[in-house]
Amino acid sequence: MKRKITGVLLVLGLGAGTMFASDARCDRRDIHHEETRIAHDNWQLRRDLDCGRYGAARHERAELRHDYRDLNHDRRDLYWDRR
């Protein structure tokens, strides 16, 4: 009886590992979207600074920090799954 329970738990444990692995295609797509969003936010930041809208520029810098954080997380996730 102990062997059956141990076997079932082992099979469930091994199956759960693949369930949490991410898909590399989705990670690459997310990275591409983040890079596109960063390029757009950089353009908006330059435009706001040129026009003297410093409050809007502060907002764009905050968005850029968030986007860079997401990009780094996606890259780390992509490379971590390949090891």
Task: Write up this protein.
- With 83 residues, the protein is mainly alpha-helical.
- The protein has one domain (24-82).
- It has 3 helices and no strands.
- The chain has helices at 2-19, 24-51, 54-82.
- The longest helix is centred in the last third of the chain and has 29 residues, at 54-82.
- It is rod-shaped.
- The relative contact order is 0.13.
In short:
With 83 residues, this protein is mainly α. It has one domain.
What is the number of beta strands? 0
Strand content: under 5%
**What pattern of helices and strands is seen along the backbone?**
HHH
Distance between the termini: 37 Å
Shape descriptor? rod-shaped
- Mean pLDDT equals 84
The structure class reads mainly alpha
Q: Which regions contain 5 or more consecutive residues with pLDDT less than 50?
A: none
Tally of domains: 1
Largest sheet: none
Count of separate DSSP helical elements: 3
Helical fraction? over 70%
What is the strand and helix layout of this fold?
Elements: H1 2-19, H2 24-51, H3 54-82
